[in-house]
Fold this sequence. Notes:
Layout lengths: L1 E4 L2 E4 L14 H6 L9 E2 L40 H11 L6
Antiparallel strand pairs: 1-2, 1-3
Amino acid sequence: LEVLYKNQYRAVPVTGENSFIVNIGKLVDDLIDNQVPSVRHRVAEVDFDRYSVTYFLGPQFDADISRSMTGVLTDAGQKYTIFGEWIKDYLGAIELFYY
């Protein structure tokens, strides 16, 4: 895994065997008032075996995403009110690659 830091992708250090990494997305970042930053990331090609599990967790489709936990208008809230509207457009905008 690589993260974008100061306009350059850098490898995420492995902290030991049986380690795992949790990323949060921009929407969660906004909803929790930027208390935990989201980062742009990508999966790097490696020359050894590894196992990855991708799991996306989101709120109910009718959840209000327009405001953060403290009531601040979120970036998504400038265009969408509910999660279902946002995720429909978001999934249409990204490309998924399967190997």
